[in-house]
Amino acid sequence: MKISLKLPLSLFFILTWVFSFSLYANSDIALANNDTTVEKVAKIETGTLQPSDFQNIFSKSEKPLEAELYWSRLNYDGDLYIRIRSKATKKEPWQIIGPISGTANHYTLDSLKNNHSYEWQLGAITGSDGAGDPTYVWADSSDKFQTSASYNFWNILTLLGALGVFIFGMKIMSDGLQKMAGDQLRKVLKGMTSTRVTGIATGALVTSILQSSSATTVMVVSFVNAGLLTLSESMGVIMGANIGTTITAWMVAYLGFKVKITSISLMVMGVSFPLLFASNDRLKQLAEFILGFGILFIGLEYLKDSVPDIKANPGILEFLAPYTNMGILSTLLFVLIGTILTIVVQSSSASTAITLIMLSQGWISFPIAAAMVLGENIGTTITANIAALVGNVYAKRAARFHTMFNLIGVFWMLLVFNQFVPFIETQANGWGLGDELALALYHTGFNIINVSILVWFVPVLEKVVIKATPSKGHQDEEFRLQYISAGLMSTPELSLTEAKKELQIFGKIIDKMSFSFSALLFERHKDPQAIIDKIKKREEITDDLELELGNYLTKVSESDLSHQASERVREFLSMANDLERVADIYYMMTKNYQRMVKQEIKLPEDSMQELREMLDLVYSSIKLMRKNMELDRDEIVLKEVYQIESETKSLRKKLVKNHYDRLERNVYTSMTGVVYLDYVVRAERIVAHIVNVNESMVGLK
User: Fold this and answer.
1) How far apart (Å, rounded) are the C-alpha atoms in residues 494 and 179?
2) pTM
3) How many CB atoms lie within 10 A of CB 22?
4) Which residues pair with 109 in a beta bridge?
5) Is-contact 511 618, C-beta < 8 A?
6) Which of 465, 473, 22, 455 is nearest to 237 (CA)?
């Protein structure tokens, strides 16, 4: 399989640049936040502090029950104290907190009231009164803060909005990559069926680019339905997609949790934004990719901030407490939760990001997160099954295989869950990866092992899938556009591959109509009406195909396509229109034949031979058109197309002359001549439409 390296190399350089830049910026941010500066002041002896010695006092509260208090660092021998009271009433007595080290410059208050206002002062003990109680010196002024409200409906809306930003960023990034990679991906898809190993590699590559295993599997299901792939060929691609989707987990786990990339994302987006208005399509597509990348991680940051803090809202997970210590039942429960989560958000990447956040925030333990990842592997199969609902039996089998493959993987993993998960944790801790990267390692390790095991059982799995999804007959096995148009709007560039395949099927129907009409006109049949009915039925199918293909391409064109893809949409619409015209002409020629039979018109032998010669040229043009439909546009040569067109025009002139000669010699009547001439003129029109189709293929129409 010959695959262009331009796309992988360009992606490698882009991601390497972003990665390096993020590391550099992250180190700067870390230095900026590192409190290495100690204010150089003279040592203050115990009891000698004055109100003016307390400087730069401020506070902030980002959690419902906590507040962070800050002040300039003092070099004080004694202890510091904080007094605090509710701002709601001045009558409430001060509550004194301490002692605090005289060299500290920060203190965390907890156990505060929800959504409440406070004021506080910093001070120190200066001595004692006559009763032995301490006397204090306090700062000149007090500072105020308010704790936030506990998790409520508005916080939930914020969380959903953050999830929406994350998914939106992923879509923009994926679309930008698809546009940059459109032609290359189509070439990859052409060569991905040579062996099972190349199928797995291609599935992993395409999914890494699309950033969505659902998009890849839906695409594969549709290709199987269109006849572009066999069931066996699709299996390798689906298995590879399971490996490719783990790239997202690594990207989110590292860039989202280990690197402070949010501020970098904004800067990169600012640099790339002007490129959206560039005249060069590649620059526009690169800008879309970078903007999507930035939006994705901004959404992830909002997502992390929107998740409720468990310490401040301990009641949120109280209902889960009884379900976390039930052994295998707990694991099965969270596998189910992971499945439902993926079905709801319709993105395994988004559900994996949510799981990573829950793990990092302490919501769930590592084994629980691992169980949810297993559930997400099951949930991601739902999209392909939905797309296959309106497909033929082959599409249904491909979708069923995806589900079966993932279920088998989850089943064997559950058998070794208590051994495999601690092993991954131990290895990750030994490598200093942390929980988030450990989960990404678990996700990748599980999928690679699953593929490595089940790849040897593909023939057996294929037999099981075929037996579990039997064919309901010829109608169930028909390749129809209405069966493949579902679910591919997320990959508009690759959808054009399916449109091309449908046009090939369109051409095949025209081929059959041409063959049937020649048989009707030149051969004797016991039941010619059966052939007429067959031609009529095929003409009706072409009407439906043109309508469905037009609707499909219109939906694709509503997506944000590249300039080249937009041109292809117009060319495909033109091709469908010309092919439908050809089908109409064959149907009208059939009506002409019926009139000839009804009026008992018999054409002379020499005129029948002339018509045979004309229709042979027409059939040659159709065969050449179908051959060109299998090629890429840069491989098509129109010389032979124009040669057949020229021969047809010359023959038409000759036949028209012969027609008038026969009329002058009274060889046949004018009515017979009209029938004969109708065949000749319509045959030439067919060739003209076929030429239009060939020209559309190379972008001349």
Assistant:
1) 9
2) 0.53
3) 22
4) 67
5) no
6) 455
- Angstrom distance (rounded) from CA 237 to CA 245: 12
Nearest C-alpha neighbor of 376 from the set 429, 412, 338: 338
The helix (H) or strand (E) run that includes residue 106 is strand 106-109
Distance between CA atoms of residues 447 and 227, nearest Å: 28
Average confidence (pLDDT) per 10 residues, the chain, 701 residues: 41 44 41 39 77 86 80 87 79 84 87 80 85 86 78 70 75 68 56 70 75 67 65 81 80 66 73 80 79 76 62 49 69 87 74 80 82 88 71 77 89 91 87 84 90 88 86 51 44 70 87 90 82 88 84 76 80 92 93 89 90 93 92 87 93 92 88 91 94 91 71
Cα–Cα distance between 552 and 572 in angstroms, integer? 11
Q: How far is residue 214's CA from residue 377's CA, in Å, rounded to a whole number? A: 10
Q: How many CB atoms lie under 10 A from the CB of residue 41? A: 13
Q: Among residues 380, 57, 327, 438, which one has the least CA distance to residue 210?
A: 380
Q: Fill in the amino acid letter for 475.
A: Q
β-sheet bridge partners, residue 63 = 66
How many of the other CB atoms lie within 10 Å of CB of 356? 26
| CA 162, chain centre distance (Å) | 18
Please report the DSSP string for 394-448 in residue order.
Answer: HHHHHHHHHHHHHHHHHHHHHHTHHHHHHHHHHHHHHTT-HHHHHHHHHHHHHHH
Question: How far is Cα 482 from Cα 391, in angstroms, rounded to an integer?
Answer: 8
- 3-state class of 81 per DSSP? strand
482 closest CA partner among 454, 502, 457, 453: 502
> CA neighbours within 13 Å on the CB side: how many for 599?
13
With residue 123 as reference, give the H or E element that holds it.
strand 117-128
> What distance in Å separates the CA atoms of residue 301 and residue 121, rounded to the nearest whole number?
34
Residue 106 CB burial class (10 angstroms; 0-12, 13-18, ≥19): exposed
d(CA 14, CA 22): 12
Phi-psi region of 3 (alpha: psi -120 to 50; beta: other; left: phi over 0): beta
Q: Of the candidates 165, 148, 160, which has an alpha carbon nearest to the alpha carbon of residue 262?
A: 165
Residue in 115, 292, 127, 110 with CA at minimum distance from that of residue 212? 292
